[in-house]
Amino acid sequence: MKYFFIFIVLLNSIAALAEDKSSNGFLLEGKLVVTDPYKKTHEKNMPMGFSDDGNLQKFIIGENQYKVPGKPEKYSIAILLQDNNFVWVQEFHSKPLKSFTWQLGEHKISLYKEILRKPVKGDYILSIDDKDYFFNNRLAQITFIFNDEGIESFDVSGMVASLGLNRAKDKCEQPSDGSESDTSDEEEKDSEETKCKPPES
């Protein structure tokens, strides 16, 4: 009877451990919108997570699931700036992209083009939540660092963080040499000049 009681307690302990282990996971719902060089948009579900049912442990990224020995500490996505000034991201699309926006759980990650006063590589800005980055090398990497609930932080390499000093170029700003830019469409030029005039008092 004594051994039977010990056996029951042991079974309950194993069941409790299995239950705790199976709950040791997370899943961040994700929606990805990419824009190709022809300005066509493509949408897809792009979740990220880790599951553990007590027997099989899997890391989930988009439509792919990979068997892993345990919860990964981090995962990296590479962004390659190509010679044509578009980017390639293996996990996102089979062809080069112009831009993307990835809503991942409570985090928003986007890459877009904008002409700045001081030109940056590819005219690209990478924005992660409320922080912006510029390409420093042609190969950049976003590393997701995990905790038990999901993403703890981000580490970005191959890029430099924006200090908020390099802002978007004013369309009404004249070239530094004082000359006006040429245009073949005089009507469009007049329209732009009208937009740039200060309001009459």
Report on this model:
The protein is an alpha+beta fold and 201 residues long. The chain has a domain at 25-161. 16% of the residues lie in helices and 40% in strands. The chain has helices spanning 2-22, 186-196; strands at residues 26-28, 30-35, 41-45, 48-52, 57-61, 64-67, 74-81, 87-88, 99-104, 107-113, 124-128, 131-135, 139-147, 150-157, 159-161. A seven-stranded antiparallel beta sheet has the order 3-2-9-10-11-12-15, with no helix packed on it. It has a four-stranded antiparallel beta sheet with strand order 1-4-5-6, with no helix packed on it. A four-stranded antiparallel beta sheet has the order 8-7-13-14, with no helix packed on it. The longest helix is centred in the N-terminal third of the chain and has 21 residues, at 2-22. The protein is globular, with a radius of gyration of 25 Å. Mean pLDDT is 80; it is low at 2-23 and 175-199. Residues 192-201 have a biased composition (Basic and acidic residues). Residues 179-191 have a biased composition (Acidic residues).
